[in-house]
Amino acid sequence: GVEVGPQPQGVVRADILDKMRKIVKHGLDFVQLFNEGSEFPPCTIEVFRIMEKVDYPRNKNDEVIAIIHPKLQDQDWQPLNNGDPLFLTLDGEVIAYKGDCTVYPTFINEAAYYEKKQAFVKTVKMKLTAGHIRSSVL
Prior knowledge:
Layout: H1 14-35, E1 39-40, E2 43-54, E3 66-68, E4 85-89, E5 94-96, E6 120-130, E7 133-134
Antiparallel strand pairs: 1-7, 2-6, 3-4, 4-5
């Protein structure tokens, strides 16, 4: 599957649709070239591995007591370091990130994830390396 975003639920954005078409076309071009016997050299790509889903701070009655901090809003895939602001309580207190490594939050404050108790997802950046490949069907 391919998910290209962000875009609000029930909204079709031309720029996002164009990106989705391009990525699907690249995938289909790869399959065609692979099936024709093309050889692909080794490559390394940067990816983000999901570490954990982070919920909003809640009280003992399971009610949300803080919102995404304005400095974190719209910062998907940007580095988040120890001490950076995460949440802002309803009475103005900043809740900072406490972690031993830089993470890259994504799906920050996405409406589709409220019911799943997910404020954002913490990811870490890593590199994946693939050796060369070639179809053996020839």
